[in-house]
Specification:
The structure is a single chain. The chain is α+β, with helices and mostly antiparallel strands. The chain has 14 helices and 18 strands. The chain has a seven-stranded mixed β-sheet with strand order 2-1-12-11-10-7-8, with no helix packed on it. A six-stranded antiparallel β-sheet has the order 13-16-17-18-14-15, sandwiched between helices. It has a five-stranded mixed β-sheet with strand order 4-3-5-6-9, with no helix packed on it. A hairpin with an 8-residue loop joins strand 14 and strand 15. It starts with a strand and ends in a 7-residue tail after the last helix.
Length: 506
């Protein structure tokens, strides 16, 4: 008994007869049995074949893919009531009507204005993602399992990386690179809600492009604000026909077609959004992609919340360190703000040596704490207005070990990392320093670096027992001491900085 396909083009219905067991081709060229004049449809897009009450749909390596209920398919069975999309055109498969003596019909809507709703928005909770639910029971069991495996593998990968993220850059890299890897997106962005705003205003924090030549990145701020304010996950099948993008001519001008946006969510709040788009035509994403992106957004939101908490803790730690440094300098009346100046010098020297930002920050923090051990040195020795006796100097030489012992009680990884500078900043390249008489590269880098910065500030500052030495002379002494008292590489860095006038520290 023949079946039928009905094509509605701007209100005009066209009916194509289908015979069970026969195969028809859907495409843009006139030779196709079902001809669809839609630029987003490939010349030969897919085939349809009726088998009983089912419709076998097979994609013909089309440019934009073939979708059943917005899930991409290569070859799959459509059940009665399913929606099949080719480009921007949607076919609705209907059950055989008994009044038509067993004939099955499918309605094809070729007008994008009357096609499926162009925007899908829904709240996706982590416990409600339907990877293996009855809602997808029309898919073969093997396909369901493969999809679930893909989702779980992706989320496991994201979780592992995000678990170790300690700053926004690492978090953004992990999230966006994974998104580009597992979706058909051309571009991805991490967007953060603007502090203090009660609206969905947000700023782009990081962007990743599949192709570096894709140019400037512009997103739909309307869609982002809607996602943040309502906490919904959204995707637009075709931005070019969606009213949300009508005012965003920069988006349309870039040829953006398919868009997805999901919230960066914690238990209590929405911190921002993940935004992805594609220039490869409409229908690039599906609701399955939206679910996966929403799950990544949940993981990234929790990780971002943790990163912010760590940042607050580290800021509190740094404020405490500065308070300790100020206390030490106040205790030693002759070294006012000495620790701050050594910290500034150490950071500049580290940068001149080509050390990374993390190492520069460690050098600065270590320098702020390098004299913390002087808390254990009697005031009578610290503030003596003259040269120390042998016994007094021996007591003073204990302050690096005192400092390391005091700070060892703080288990923060950041404090542990700065201990070498505190303990070894009085060691010398030739082994004549203290407290352990280490030699050459056996002295930790932080100790070598702080030793030079400490020497530089000590001699250029006026003390009770000596006047300030001109910086030209001090740099000359450091140059002469390279390979004897000082690491030659660090000494050279100081000479270069001085030549550029970059050693003057307020």
């Amino acid at each position: 008994m023949p079946s039928a396909i009905e094509v509605a083009v701007r209100g005009t219905a066209l009916v194509y007869a289908l015979v069970e067991g026969a195969m028809v081709t859907v495409g843009r060229v006139a030779q196709c049995e079902i001809h669809i004049d839609d630029h987003s449809v490939s010349r030969r897009h897919c085939t349809l074949a009726v088998k009983g009450a089912s419709l076998v749909v097979t994609d013909l390596d089309s440019a934009n893919g073939t979708f059943i209920n917005e899930r991409p398919v290569k070859s799959a069975v459509a059940r009665p009531g399913d929606l099949i999309r080719v480009g921007a055109t949607v076919l609705q498969y209907r059950a055989p009507d008994a009044a038509q003596q067993g004939r099955a019909t499918a309605r094809v809507v070729a007008d994008p204005d009357t096609a499926m709703e162009s925007v899908v928005s829904k709240r996706i909770e982590p416990a409600e993602i339907e990877w293996l639910s009855s809602a997808t029971s029309a898919m073969p069991a093997l396909s369901l399992l493969q999809r679930a495996q893909r989702h779980l593998k992706t989320l496991h990968r994201v979780s592992e990386v995000l678990a170790g993220a300690r700053d926004l850059q690492v978090l953004a890299d992990a999230s966006l690179e994974t998104i580009l890897d597992v979706t058909a997106a051309d571009r991805a962005a991490l967007v953060l809600r603007r502090d203090g705003t009660t609206t969905g205003e947000a700023d782009v924090a990081a962007v990743r492009l599949r192709n570096a030549e894709q140019g400037a990145f512009t997103l739909s701020r309307t869609l982002v604000a809607d996602t943040i304010m309502k906490g919904v996950s959204t995707f637009a099948r075709d931005a070019s026909v969606d009213k949300r993008f009508s005012s965003g001519q920069s988006v349309i001008g870039q040829g953006i077609r398919s868009v997805m946006c999901v919230p960066l969510r914690t238990t209590d709040e929405i911190l921002g959004a993940l935004y992805v788009d594609s220039q490869s035509g409409p229908g690039r994403f599906s609701e399955e992609d939206l679910e996966l992106l929403a799950a990544i957004g949940n993981h990234a939101g929790v990780a971002l919340h943790r990163v912010r908490l760590l940042g607050e803790i580290e800021r509190l730690l740094l404020d405490t360190v500065r308070a300790i440094a100020a206390t030490i300098d106040a205790k030693d009346g002759y070294t006012h703000r000495h620790s701050e100046r050594v910290a500034a010098l150490a950071s500049r020297i580290a940068a001149e040596m080509g050390l990374g930002t993390d190492q520069q920050e460690l050098a600065e923090l270590s320098a702020l704490l390098h004299d913390v051990g002087k808390i254990a040195v009697p005031d009578s020795i610290l503030n003596k207005p003259g040269r120390l006796t042998v016994e007094e100097f021996a007591e003073m030489r204990k302050h690096p070990a005192h400092g390391a012992r005091i700070l060892a009680n703080i288990k923060s990884p950041l404090v542990v990392a700065v201990l070498p500078g505190v303990q070894y900043h009085h060691e010398k390249w030739d082994g004549s320093g203290y407290p352990e008489g280490l030699r050459g590269s056996d002295i930790p880098l932080l100790g070598r670096l702080l030793g030079v910065a400490d020497f530089l500030d000590a001699l250029t500052s006026a003390r009770a027992y000596h006047a300030a030495t001109p910086i030209d002379e001090v740099v000359q002494l450091i140059s002469q001491g390279a390979g004897v008292h000082f690491d030659p590489e660090i000494a050279d860095a100081v000479v270069r900085l001085h030549a550029r006038g970059a050693l003057n520290v307020e």
